[in-house]
Amino acid sequence: MNDIRPESTSQAPSSRARVVSIGGLLPVAIAVVATVLMLSWLPQLPNPIAVHWNGAGADGFGPAIPFVFAPLAITAVFSVFAVAWSWKPLPSGRLTWNQKILLAASLWMAVLLGFAFTASIALQRGLADARTAPDVGPWLALGAGAGLVLAVAAWFLLPAGETVSEPGTEPKFVDVQGDERVSWSRSTRLGGAPLIVVALAILVALGTAAVSVLAVSDAVLISMIVLVVVGLLVLTNFWWRVSADRRGFIAKGLFGWPRKRIPLSEIRSVAVVDVHPTRDFGGWGWRWAGGGRSGIILRAGSGIEVTQSNGKRFIVTVADAATGAGVLVALLHQNAPT
Amino acid sequence: MLIRIDPASGVALFDQIAGSLRASAIAGTLAVGERLPSARELAASLDINVHTVLRAYQLLRDEGLIELRPGRGAIVTGRIAGDYDALNSAVANVIAEARKLNIAPPALAALIRETYQ
User: Fold this and answer.
1) In this structure, which of A15, A22, A42, A81 has its CB flanked by the most CB atoms within 10 Å?
2) Angle at which helices B50-62 and B13-27 pack, to 10 degrees?
């Protein structure tokens, strides 16, 4: 992004207006239009209607009303989630990249669902038997494409994306004498609030999957696979052991994987930092932010920031970060040629 | 939790590890429920034999400070009996005094050891 940064913090309200209108009001408005259209066609529909298609044609049937309201319900839930997540822009009025992605996705999903559901209803007008309903596949693709165009436009209309980083404080040396060997380690795990967010996200995914099963064939299998993968990712990111010793700085996941190891010889400097997960990294887990920063972000509060010799910075949030960082600087000092 | 060993100190290594962990428990940096690194992991970290670490863990298990669970490593289950607030603040005072007099940690440790006996 460009280098012009707004100086005042009065940018926040105008950002929020754009967030609410693009990520919340617009998607809901699209869903409302779709719902109204579908409701107006209700008298011309067969009973039951086709609600599910496979490659060969309609193969699932059900009542019209729940089907007609599904896109509005899903869109409303997702929009509220996206707007709530982006409610607090950065002090500069900009958004984190995650917030932008979520808001654009909210719009994309509203268009996709609106198109797919409205088209499938429109195609069934005047049919005596829903079994003869034509395929909705092309409309689904068209909806996805139109959604993408709008989402890209939304991306540019939304406030600029930004990542923040605050300089850390230098750690105090942990006293190491002569031939003494020190080993610091600590387990760190995902805290309470993010767990709720993760649970909510999984619920939204489940709900979306459950309803989209009605419209898309093979969606059950795909959504189950996605959920299993997401579940495994959450598990591997749930619990970590962080250690600092002669081997360097090491973070290891629950199953010994994923793991990250930075040898002492590749450490340029160490700092203790204060981390705000959503603001600085846009969330929890193994995260990448701008400016060559990545990290294992599990909680708000203290973290160890290791700057590697290539300039990249790796951050792990952990209690007692001061001691861990202190051990690292002491070992670096011990290893340094005198 | 911070573990330090000094191969030159003359005290058995497993005793030093156990001592470090006891000290962490007393100072409150090792809370009940905290999982210790596996013996293999800690041995690699300190560049010592895994049996030395296991011996330290077994000693602490017998004292009731930790529990060894096969496959899950060691978990801190007990506290060392007693109220350590007074001792912790006394230790802080001793260290502050030693800093003032420029007494290095090994000298201070030796002084305490001599006086204790």
Assistant:
1) A22
2) 50
Residue from A205, A210, A261 nearest A233 by CA: A205
Q: For residue B41, what are its two tokens? A: 């992991």
Helix (H/G/I), strand (E/B), else coil: A242: strand
**Chain B residues touching residue A241 (CB < 8 angstroms):** 35, 37, 41
- The predicted pLDDT at position A16 comes to 84
How many CB pairs (< 8 A) connect A and B?
59
* B47 vs A180, A187, A246: nearest CB: A246
Q: Which pair of tokens denotes residue A112?
A: 């996709």
pLDDT band at residue A216 under the 50/70/90 scheme: low
CA distance A319 to chain B (A): 10
Measured in angstroms, the CA of A172 and the nearest CA of chain B are apart by 14
Query: What are A50-87's pLDDT values in tens digits?
Result: 888 776 778 888 888 888 898 899 899 889 988 888 88
CB atoms within 10 A of CB A156: 8
Q: Who among A179, A187, A327 is closest to B2 (CB)?
A: A327
Question: For position A222, what pLDDT does the model report?
Answer: 62
pLDDT of residue A302: 93
Q: What is the pLDDT of residues A94-115, one digit of tens each?
A: 787 778 888 888 899 899 999 8
Cβ-defined contact of B6 to A179 (cutoff 8 Å): yes
B105 touches chain A (CB under 8 A): yes
> Among positive and negative, which fits the CA dihedral A28, A29, A32, A37?
negative
Reported ipTM: the value is: 0.80
pLDDT at position A2 over 50: no
What Å distances lie between residue A260 and A237, A239, A247, CA to CA? 13, 14, 12
Structure tokens at A300: 């708000």
Least Cα separation, residue A245 to chain B (angstroms): 6
Which residue on chain A is closest to B3 by alpha carbon?
A183
Chain B: residue whose CA lies nearest to A324:
B2
